[in-house]
């Protein structure tokens, strides 16, 4: 699992804000999230997607007690085998929430993978 997350961190590019593409590792760092925070966020996203058929508006909260970071992940759209996720994160106890959007698609094996 950790190798898979590392691979995702190294290879995935997301679109954030004003359609500016950045590597996921840079987005995480700029938001003040640690790699451990991203693992917790990713686990919450996966749990949300695997707890039944995904539908718009479903939401799950996450907290990393080790760093004080917390947030929510919400399903913003469902298109075929892909979902758009809306993340609200508060890194390291920062009270100002930051917004990030990601996209995951279900592969042939039933795994939800981050996609650009």
Describe the structure.
By secondary structure, this protein is an alpha+beta fold. It has one domain (2-114). The protein is 28% helix and 40% strand. It is built from 3 helices and 7 strands, in the order αββααβββββ. The chain has a 5-stranded antiparallel sheet with strand order 3-4-5-6-7, covered by helices on one side. A hairpin with a 4-residue loop joins strand 3 (59-64) and strand 4. 25% of the residues are buried. The model is unreliable at 1-19 (pLDDT under 50).
Please compute the radius of gyration using only Cα atoms: 13 Å
Following the backbone from N to C, one meets helices and strands in this order, namely HEEHHEEEEE
* Poorly predicted runs of 5 or more residues: 1-19
Look at the helices and sheets and give the structural class. Answer: alpha+beta
Largest sheet, strands/sense/barrel: 5 strands, antiparallel
The end-to-end distance, rounded to whole angstroms, is 20 Å
Record field, number of beta strands: 7
What is the mean predicted local confidence, pLDDT? 81
Helix share bin: 25-40%
Lateral arrangement of strands in the main beta sheet: 3-4-5-6-7
Our estimate of the beta-strand percent is 35-45%
Figure out the total of helices.
3
Number of domains: 1
Describe the global form: globular
Topology:
Layout: H1 2-11, E1 13-16, E2 20-23, H2 24-30, H3 35-50, E3 59-64, E4 69-79, E5 82-90, E6 98-106, E7 112-114
Antiparallel strand pairs: 1-2, 3-4, 4-5, 5-6, 6-7
Task: Give a short synopsis of this structure.
By secondary structure, this protein is α+β, with helices and mostly antiparallel strands. The chain has helices spanning 2-11, 24-30, 35-50, and strands at 13-16, 20-23, 59-64, 69-79, 82-90, 98-106, 112-114.
